[in-house]
Amino acid sequence: MTPQVWFITGTSTGFGRVMTEHVLQNGGFVVATLRKPVALADFAARYPKDRLLILKLDVAVASQIPPAFQQAIDAFGRVDVVFNNAGMCVVGEAEISPEEEARRLFDTNYWGAVNVSREAIRVFREVNPAGVGGRLLQNSSMAGLGPLALFGHYVASKHALEGFTKTLATELDPSWNIKVTLIEPGFFQTEIVRQAKVVPIHPTYDDERASEVRDLMAAGDLPGDIEKGVSVIYNVARLSDPPLHFPLGGDGVVAMKTAGELLVTTVKQYGSWSQNLLKAEMGKAAITIKNAYQ
């Protein structure tokens, strides 16, 4: 396979940094973006500029995204894989987590990923050779599949990203050959939780679980091996027909199974309640919608 050109966001630590090196070690080319390029000074010293382009990019600032892609195109002529990885986290009960922090989180986790995705689709379709397309990997989370106590706004941002991505995937013309996959990791050894904004415990929620979760997150000792996880993601990007959803890690698999089983159980128990709810008289548009979705 021809070496691929990867565009990766959030490469200072975690999945982004490890994926950058993994791609380079496997003969690929990387456009590594991050808010503070000095964090990749060691990579810049080890890899030549014709293999690794390091760019300053804050995905929360939409105006910075198109120029970053243009620099990637100027350097390598195309972009084959976009790994939407930049993210942040807020730890605290949903009721008391500050709105300001939640909005800042959404600016990165949701809007940043959305705006990178939009530009990625344009480049795959209009810059890459016709029919070549590209791969869009969204680094979502098992938190995009179900609830996770004390991570309410992080969970919400990942659910939003999942909804956007699934819709985007249905809108793409198959002839463009653009493949989209939601990577849904469980708890891997990254810095995102340790660097998270931790909201002080509110007296109403001052119980053993609230303290235990905060202590575990502060310890930063998470079970998933990020090197192994990145190797799997890399292989997913090389599949000819990748899945829309890809749970990463045993806890990611459990989260997906639990979410699916809950939906099936609910439909079995209450699905009949939604029968015979159609209007007595329907126009052409209503009939078309009914036939399309029922």
TrEMBL record:
<keyword id="KW-0521">NADP</keyword>
<dbReference type="InterPro" id="IPR036291">
    <property type="entry name" value="NAD(P)-bd_dom_sf"/>
</dbReference>
<comment type="similarity">
    <text>Belongs to the short-chain dehydrogenases/reductases (SDR) family.</text>
</comment>
<protein>
    <submittedName>
        <fullName>NAD(P)-binding protein</fullName>
    </submittedName>
</protein>
<dbReference type="GO" id="GO:0016491">
    <property type="term" value="F:oxidoreductase activity"/>
</dbReference>
<dbReference type="InterPro" id="IPR002347">
    <property type="entry name" value="SDR_fam"/>
</dbReference>
<dbReference type="InterPro" id="IPR020904">
    <property type="entry name" value="Sc_DH/Rdtase_CS"/>
</dbReference>
<keyword id="KW-0560">Oxidoreductase</keyword>
<dbReference type="InterPro" id="IPR051911">
    <property type="entry name" value="SDR_oxidoreductase"/>
</dbReference>
<dbReference type="Pfam" id="PF00106">
    <property type="entry name" value="adh_short"/>
</dbReference>
